[in-house]
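[SOLVED] Need 3D model of a four-part complex

Original post:
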Amino acid sequence: MGKGAETRERIIEIAEASVLAKGFGATSIEEIIVEAGITKSGFFYHFKDKNELAHKMVRRYVDENNRVFDEIFERGHQLSDDPLQAFLISLKLLAETMSDLPSGHPGCLIASICYQERLFDRDVRNLIAQSVKEWHMRFRAILDDIAVVHRPRDAIDLGDVADMLSCIVDGAIIMSKALNDPKRIERQVLAFRSFVKLLFSPATAQLEKPPVPDSIQAA
Amino acid sequence: MGKGAETRERIIEIAEASVLAKGFGATSIEEIIVEAGITKSGFFYHFKDKNELAHKMVRRYVDENNRVFDEIFERGHQLSDDPLQAFLISLKLLAETMSDLPSGHPGCLIASICYQERLFDRDVRNLIAQSVKEWHMRFRAILDDIAVVHRPRDAIDLGDVADMLSCIVDGAIIMSKALNDPKRIERQVLAFRSFVKLLFSPATAQLEKPPVPDSIQAA
DNA sequence: CGCAAAACTGTATCGACGGTACAGTAGTTC
DNA sequence: GAACTACTGTACCGTCGATACAGTTTTGCG
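Solution:
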């Protein structure tokens, strides 16, 4: 990585933390450059304006997010051949990942920007819509695979179930911020996991242990 | 209502629409007073600063929200004696209410402020935490009532299920903003309804009609 | 009607911020 | 040593939140 790229990276990191804490509108270029140890001219050398910073920031966030998702759902696939069990394992891993972040989840950049949409140009908004659609397709594909093996116990659209995970994570982040309780995110992901379990488990399996070990402690 | 109170009301209404569209930090007093047809001096006569505006705005939002909730869950209670059926009816009403808003849901003020928390003083943040806790207790009480009659099919904490509704609504609002698709909110509330149905319905009721009519069209 | 309080207006000023312009410079690379 | 990258320094503009304070209109009450 060249020196310029390094500086850009540092600026984006600082900006992201500030945007998640205060919102984009309230994040001043002044504070970013002070923390980054550069001048205002330096900032505008790297980014033509604040909107370009937003665009590069969202790009970075989405890529990193997708990387984590890939890892988690790949791991679940490794630990069980049954698509339902693999997904349930991945959801537990996701819940743990969310709660392991030291000072609580920093928040979802996508959500932060959605609440200030008028501040951003079409490029940024398209990028966000694109990534939400990608998450939908990712979860939808997993649920379709499960439905091949396990018949759903309710006639609900699996696309809506897929969206539900995104909604719950974003909603839980907001709740954890409002109550200053990072543990809510983990519990909400596990609540969604409970829904998936109920939706695909055989009707007779009332309050009994699932066929494949629920815990992945031994793995 | 006196003339002063009327003006304050108008200012708060204008401010709320702007905050939901752009965020609090990007909402200028200038644009508020132009739209309200007053001067800057007039604004600061009613509110000592922007933070006081935020506080009164949140107060109004929470009160109105609670009023709508009271109405919806009261109506469900009228339409069925069974607590589960009453809740399922109310959730359908809630979904309809959410989707009936002409140009999509304006967004959750609480969520908007959570993403810009550093901008607000302790008063505003306490008010928000309080209202989130109130929603938790409201839904928790309903679920506890249901659990007396219908045994849950999973050992999930009912407090988490209660929180899930708040999370899903907030998350769905974000998603509907990101995709510019207001219908997502309705569908997510109905997905939550499906979860509640699965959680409390007897294990044998696989894909069959519930005992009490699901639809409230005839009501 | 008269008067006081409420509900403003008008003017001026301040510091912080986003953004622009442009000249200059230190370090690296071919 | 020329070209290029990665900046710094300085100066300036318009907007915004906020403060101060004197002046004016509107309203309700006795």
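Edit: The domain at 51-200 of chain B is CATH 1.10.357.10 (Tetracycline Repressor; domain 2).
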